[in-house]
């Protein structure tokens, strides 16, 4: 005797299963995307000090390598952070390398007097576009209004040029305060730039110099 069998279910998903899956996916995205965005911003904020350390270290290194004067210059960026540029200058009799005089390199041309001629060092410019905007990570310089550091051929800071930058501080907004600590970059007279903690106090080795 033959038995009737129900037809096999065709492969695929029912409309209800698809709708349930989409609902679960929507919940995961609603929870996950804001957290991921916050994580990315926090990571960028924590790494911001490295951006400025790179420029200061480059300026000192290029001065020593080329036996020249160098300078690290901050400028206002589009997002409220500071862009930076490193220039070189080769002193000549009667033409010292100061803030207002001297034949400094540019991003388009080497400095006059560069031993390598037109193929010599060209200024390096780095925009701060990859950093969080200033309403998320607020930059501040010390002394107020400072924005340059000049280096001698030995890599020391040129103290004869007034208004030199000694500290660059980065403070997170309230939204990131639980995830990102305030940080700073200090520049010593020896030309060494290093990270420090503006919230720490001496004798803590992490404290910023007075």
What does the model show?
A hairpin with a 5-residue loop joins β1 and β2. The protein is α+β, with helices and mostly antiparallel strands. It contains 1 helix and 8 strands. The model has no long low-confidence stretch (mean pLDDT 85). The protein has a single domain, classed as minor pseudopilin epsh domain (minor pseudopilin epsh fold, 3-Layer(bab) Sandwich), CATH 3.55.40.
SSE pattern, N- to C-terminal: HEEEEEEEE
Report the C-alpha radius of gyration, rounded. Answer: 27 Å
Q: Strand fraction band?
A: 15-25%
Mean pLDDT: 85
The percent range for helix content is 10-25%
CATH top level is Alpha Beta
Shape: elongated
* Low-confidence regions: none
Q: Numbering strands along the chain, what is their spatial order in the largest sheet?
A: 3-2-1-5
Biggest sheet, open or closed, and with what strands and sense?
Answer: 4 strands, antiparallel
Q: In CATH terms, what is the fold-level topology?
A: minor pseudopilin epsh fold
CATH architecture: 3-Layer(bab) Sandwich
Kindly state the number of beta strands.
8
Number of separate domains: 1
The CATH fourth-level homologous superfamily: minor pseudopilin epsh domain
Task: Indicate the structural class.
Answer: alpha+beta
Terminal residue distance: 100 Å
Helix count equals: 1
GO cellular component, one term: type II protein secretion system complex
Protein name: Prepilin-type N-terminal cleavage/methylation domain-containing protein
Pfam families: N_methyl
Keywords: Membrane, Transmembrane, Transmembrane helix
């Amino acid at each position: 005797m033959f038995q009737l069998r129900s037809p096999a279910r065709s492969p695929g998903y029912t409309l209800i299963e698809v709708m349930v899956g989409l609902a679960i996916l929507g919940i995961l995205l609603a929870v996950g995307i804001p957290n991921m965005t916050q994580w990315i911003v926090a990571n960028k904020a924590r790494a911001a000090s490295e951006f400025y350390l790179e420029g200061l270290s480059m300026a000192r290194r290029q001065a020593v390598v080329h036996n020249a004067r160098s300078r690290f210059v901050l400028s206002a960026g589009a997002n409220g952070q500071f862009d930076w540029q490193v220039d070189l200058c080769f002193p000549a009799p009667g033409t010292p390398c100061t803030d207002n005089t001297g034949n400094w390199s540019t991003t388009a041309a080497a400095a006059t007097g560069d031993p390598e001629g037109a193929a010599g060092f060209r200024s390096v410019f780095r925009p701060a576009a990859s950093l969080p905007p200033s309403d998320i990570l607020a930059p501040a310089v010390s002394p107020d209004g400072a924005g340059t550091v000049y280096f001698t051929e030995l890599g020391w800071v040129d103290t004869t040029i007034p208004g030199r930058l000694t500290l660059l501080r980065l403070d997170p907004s309230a939204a990131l305060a639980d995830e990102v600590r305030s940080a700073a970059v200090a520049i010593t007279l020896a030309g060494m730039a290093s990270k420090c903690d503006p919230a720490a106090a001496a004798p803590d080795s992490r404290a910023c110099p007075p």
